[in-house]
Write a structure and sequence with these properties.
Its EC number is 1.2.1.79. Keywords: Oxidoreductase. Belongs to the aldehyde dehydrogenase family. InterPro entries: Ald_DH/histidinol_DH, Ald_DH_C, Ald_DH_CS_GLU, Ald_DH_N, Aldehyde_DH_dom. It contains 19 helices and 18 strands. About 45% of the residues lie in helices and about 15% in strands. The protein is of the alpha/beta class and about 550 residues long. Bound molecules: nicotinamide-adenine-dinucleotide (NAD). The site of nicotinamide-adenine-dinucleotide has 27 residues, from helix 9 and helix 10.
């Protein structure tokens, strides 16, 4: 095992903390076998006699098996979609206020059940209790936003027709029908539900496919929606390997909402394109942070620690590249490395609020993260802290890692590592740092730090990212539920949140009315006369600013 520059410090603390916080986790009392059986019983599987082997769900902290998750076949997916479609017709006919009442109740239920939700998130994902509770809060935040604005966004809007007074045109928003929501394991509860709920509010039914590893918390969230009054059948959960059930999910949907890697997003986009249905794709990132020469490091350091290591670096918007102005670079490296090492010492595998740093979601993923860091180390990068797994705490723990000296030939330079690691780069020239920040195929998130908002804004205007956070890592944009949030370049297509995050689940219908027949030629009217009248009308409407 190679020890990092400050690895000695981390090793000492980790040994101390392991006796205090680590060790073998046991499932908390709320997570009974009866609960797990009830939740796994909600998966649509085995309906068409096609049995798949169940998936063994693992408690990440220990590697212990916690239950078997039924796996759906493509036929099960079709059956689930048919059930959703039948329920959706009735649901779409409900007045919006009656649909919204379901989510008023769901908002309260989710808040009051946050401890159970957090535990179910932790079992499958391994994150800290603090982060799991934060994740659970995303769903009420999204519900609350759409409870406030859905009536305005979805109501029909009367637009002027081509001829004032005589014609009208009205924009209506009708539900698509069946929306497929495919979600990843990193924020499993938040993404699955916060993407399904606007679809449901808009009058759709949903076929939801969570990741196998983290399906339990999603199933519990669905159960809460049913307890809040969602009509039976309207939201069905299917589980399975993506390539196995994916084509059937897309073939049976009228719209696909996908969150995951850019590679899978491309496959989903191709399938949706073939079926000529819409899709919204929220994909990966390689997000830069720029610390300008006038930034206040007392504020930057704690925020950067969260932006890099929060959720153990498994957040799509988390920061993997930090560009620091020459004037602050050395101090930044010293303080950031110390803070990362301190955080590593607060790692723990516990279902309480003491640990501040959690596990990665699986041993497989931890090995992928470790491979990026080993590749960088082997090619000459400096590992200032971390760079080691933490098996004494849990099988998928990996220490917060800080690198410098990363060069373009290293995997971590350009690929999304999606773990608790960032590289610090020194810069002197602002034009050059903008070029470097944009030198990626991704465009999900970027962060700029300065004491001068005007200065930061000038840089931000030139960054190629769908989310830009000034004096923050990523929380401000992600938590602003009123503003659409999505990726540019290869980080996505479409957006969640804001009006766009609701309207994408609808078809816009244009209903035109002509009260008097003025748009077609009158009987026996010569065409040249009709043409002259048309030209005159168009000129006058422009002059009078009517159309
Ligand atoms: P992934 O693409 O491997 O899987 C995501 C989901 O798609 C899972 O449910 C998986 O089972 C399913 N899937 C896989 N192949 C499929 C196929 N052929 N057809 C249908 N479904 C398929 O991604 P992941 O590893 O679970 O998640 C991590 C990635 O997600 C990272 O790249 C991260 O940046 C990205 N992400 C993006 C956002 C965002 O909002 N932009 C949010 C969270 C995660």
């Amino acid at each position: 095992m190679v020890t990092a520059v400050t690895g000695g410090k981390w090793m000492e603390r980790s040994a101390m903390e392991t006796t205090k916080q680590g060790g073998t986790a046991t499932l908390p009392p709320r997570l009974t076998t009866a609960l797990i059986d009830r939740l796994t019983g909600m998966v649509v599987a085995g309906t068409a006699g096609q049995q798949r082997d169940p998936y063994e769900m693992i408690e990440v902290y220990t590697g212990n098996v916690v239950g078997e998750l039924p796996q759906s076949s493509p036929e099960d997916v079709a059956a689930a979609a048919a059930k959703v479609r039948a329920a959706q017709r009735e649901w779409a006919s409900w007045p919006l206020r009656r649909r919204l009442a379901v989510f008023e109740r769901a908002h309260e239920l989710i808040l009051s059940e946050h401890e159970t939700i957090a535990e179910l998130i932790q079992v499958g994902n391994g994150k800290t209790r603090r982060m799991a509770v934060e994740e659970s809060c995303d769903v009420p935040m999204v519900i609350s936003h759409y409870l406030k604005v859905a009536r305005r966004v979805l109501r029909p809007v009367r637009r002027g027709g081509p001829m004032p007074f005589i014609t009208t045109s009205t924009e209506q928003h009708r539900p698509k029908g069946v929306v497929a929501v495919i979600s990843p394991w990193n924020f499993p509860f938040a993404i699955s539900l916060s993407d399904s709920i606007p679809a449901l509010i808009a009058g759709n039914g949903v076929v939801l496919k969570p990741d196998n590893k983290t399906a339990l918390c999603v199933l519990y969230g669905v159960e809460l929606l049913y307890r809040a009054g969602l009509p039976r059948g309207l939201l069905q959960v299917v589980c399975g390997g993506g390539p196995d059930v994916g084509p059937s999910i897309v073939d049976n949907a009228d719209f696909v909402m996908f969150t995951g890697s850019t590679a899978t997003g491309r496959i989903i986009g191709e399938m949706a394109g073939r079926n000529l249905i819409g899709c919204s794709l929220e994909l990966g990132g390689k997000n830069p942070m720029i610390v300008l020469d006038d930034a206040n490091l007392d504020e930057v350091i704690p925020s950067a620690v969260f932006a890099v290591f929060g959720n153990s670096g498994q957040a799509c918007m988390h920061i993997e590249r930090i560009y620091v102005h020459d004037r602050l670079h050395d101090e930044f490296v010293r303080r950031f490395v110390d803070a990362a090492a301190d955080l590593g010492a607060k790692a723990g595998a516990r279902y309480d609020y003491t640990p501040e740093f959690g596990s990665l979601a699986s041993v497989d993923h931890m090995e992928k993260v470790a491979a990026h860091i080993e590749d960088a180390r082997a090619k000459g990068a400096t590992v200032h802290t971390g760079g080691v797994p933490m098996p004494d705490i849990g099988p998928a723990f990996y220490a917060p890692t800080v690198l410098t000296g990363v060069t373009p030939d290293m995997l971590h330079a350009t690929q999304e590592t999606f773990g608790p690691v960032a590289t610090i780069y020194r810069f002197c020239d602002e034009q050059e740092v903008i070029r470097q920040a944009n030198a990626t195929t991704y465009g999900l998130n970027a962060s700029v730090w300065s004491r001068s908002p005007a200065h930061a804004n000038r840089i931000a205007d030139r960054l190629e990212a769908g989310n830009i956070n000034i004096n923050d890592g990523y929380v401000t944009t992600y938590s602003s539920k009123g503003t659409p949030s999505g990726g540019v370049k290869q980080s996505g297509v479409g957006a969640r949140h804001g009006d766009a995050g609701l309207l994408k689940y609808t078809d816009t219908i244009n209903v035109g009315v002509q009260k008097v027949q003025v748009m077609t030629a009158r009987a026996k009217q010569p065409f040249d006369k009709q043409l002259r009248q048309t030209m005159l009308t168009l000129r006058w409407m422009r002059k009078l600013r009517i159309r």
